[in-house]
Here is the input.
Amino acid sequence: MAKMKTHKASAKRFHFTATGKLKRGHMSTRHNTGLKSSKRMRSLRKAAYASETRMHDLKRQLPYG
Here is the structure.
């Protein structure tokens, strides 16, 4: 049987934790940061986790994660 291919765009954005959760970054942190408040930018720096509703699709896209 052929090897499954990793979805490279997802591999760059998501990383598995030791417990099997998928860690991700926040959006809206690249451009126009001067318009966003300092409090908002601080909170966007922190990592977040992928929702349970997306886990099935993401695990299929990242088979060797």
Remarks:
- The chain has one domain: 8-61.
- Residues 13 and 38 are 24 Å apart (CA to CA).
- The chain has a mean pLDDT of 94.
- The chain is about 35% helix and 10% strand.
